Amino acid sequence: MTLVLHNFFRSSTSFRVRAALNMKGLSYDYVSYALRKGEARAPGYLALNPQGLVPTLETPRGSLTQSLAILEWLDETSPEPPLLPDDAWGRARVRSLAHAVALDIHPVNNLRILFALRDRFGADEAAQADWFRHWVAEGFTAIEARLAQESETGSFCHGEVPGLADLCLVGQCLNNRRFDVDMSPYPTIARIHAACMALPPFAEAAPENQPDAA
Amino acid sequence: MTLVLHNFFRSSTSFRVRAALNMKGLSYDYVSYALRKGEARAPGYLALNPQGLVPTLETPRGSLTQSLAILEWLDETSPEPPLLPDDAWGRARVRSLAHAVALDIHPVNNLRILFALRDRFGADEAAQADWFRHWVAEGFTAIEARLAQESETGSFCHGEVPGLADLCLVGQCLNNRRFDVDMSPYPTIARIHAACMALPPFAEAAPENQPDAA
C-alpha cells in the first residue's frame, strides 16, 4: 500500500500520524508544508484537503483528513498493534483522554490561533506563550488527575501498551517544549511521555528527526 | 440502563449527545449546569469530570466524558440505528467531517475561549462575535465544498441516514444562530441542517426544548 503523508515536522497532529504509521510498520512518503509560509493554503494542497490544514494521508483509495479520523482508520485497516483496547469501556476511556488533548488543548493553541491573537488583538510573543500555557495547564491538570487516580493507567495511558491517548499526549508534550511549559505538576504525564519516547516508533516520529526540521 | 446526562441546554457538545440518545431510544435523566455561572467548576461536578466541562454521561459502569468518546461508546454499546457507516472508508469520511466541526470550529469558539478573549485582550461582544464567525467561515467553507462535491453526500452528510457528522454539524448550526452567521454561502449544510431538524430525535434535543432553557 502506497501512502503519502502531507505534514509538517513541528505539527503535533502530524506527529500523531507519523508515530502511528511507525507503530504499525507502514512506510510512507513524506511531503512537507511550511505552515508559517502558508504552503498548506496553496491551491494544489487545498484540492487534497479543503481545510488547508495538516496532516493529510493519501491512500490508494483517496485522501484522508483529520488526524484522529486517520488514526481510527489506520487502526481498523491495519489492526496490529492496536491503538485502542478491545473492550468498549476501555476504548471510551482512551478516546476520552485523547480527546481531552486533541479537542480542548491543541485546537486553541494551534499556530493559526496564535497568529489570529496577534493580528486581531496585538498579542505579542509573551502573550501568545501565556495563552498557550494557560490551556495546557487547564487540560493537563485534569488529565494528570485522571491518570494518577484511575486504575487502568499503567506504564502508558491505558495499561502496558501505548495507543491513541499516548499519541495525542506525547504530541502535546513535544509542542510544550517550545513554550517552556513547566512539567513538574504533571509527574504521571511526564513519566508516560518518557516511556513513549524510549520506543523507536515515537522517537523516530519526533519533530527533530524529520527531513524538514530546521 | 440508567443514564444521567450532565449538560447545558445551549452547549452544542451536549446537543450531540442528547440527539444521539434520542436516536437510539435511550432515556436519561437531565442534570443542568449554568456554564456562565461556573457551575461546571464546582467540586461535586469535578469529581465526575475533572475538566469541568459538559457533557458527562453517568452510566452504571461509571462516568464518561468528551462528547465524541461518548458518541462512539453509545454506538458500540447500542448499535441501532448506527451513527457510523459499516465500511472503514465511510467511517473515516464521517469522522473526518465530524472532526472538522468538533476539533476545528467548536473548541476555538467555546464560551471559555470567548471569555478569555474578553479578559485577556479586552475583546468586546462585537470582537467576540467576529472571532466566532471567522472560525465558522473557515470550517464551513471547507465542509460545504466537501459535501457539495463528494458523491457520498446524500440527504444527510453521508447517504440517507443521519449520523456522527450530522450531530456535530447541526450542533454548530444551532450555535451559529446566536452570532448571526450568514448561512447563504453554505446551501448544502443548510439543507442537511433542515433535514435533521425535521426528525424528532434532533428537534427534541434542540436547546429551546430543554428544561433549563431561559
From TrEMBL, chains A, B:
GO molecular function, one term: maleylacetoacetate isomerase activity
UniProt EC number: 5.2.1.2
A Pfam family per the record: GST_N_3
Domain annotation GST N-terminal: ranges: 1-82
GO cellular component entries: cytoplasm
Keyword annotations of the record: Isomerase
GO biological process: glutathione metabolic process; L-phenylalanine catabolic process
Residues forming coiled coils: none
Every GST C-terminal domain range: 87-214
Tree of life domain: Bacteria
Stored PANTHER family: MALEYLACETOACETATE ISOMERASE (PTHR42673:SF4)
Family: Belongs to the GST superfamily. Zeta family.
Name of the protein: Maleylacetoacetate isomerase
Organism in which the protein naturally occurs: Pontivivens ytuae
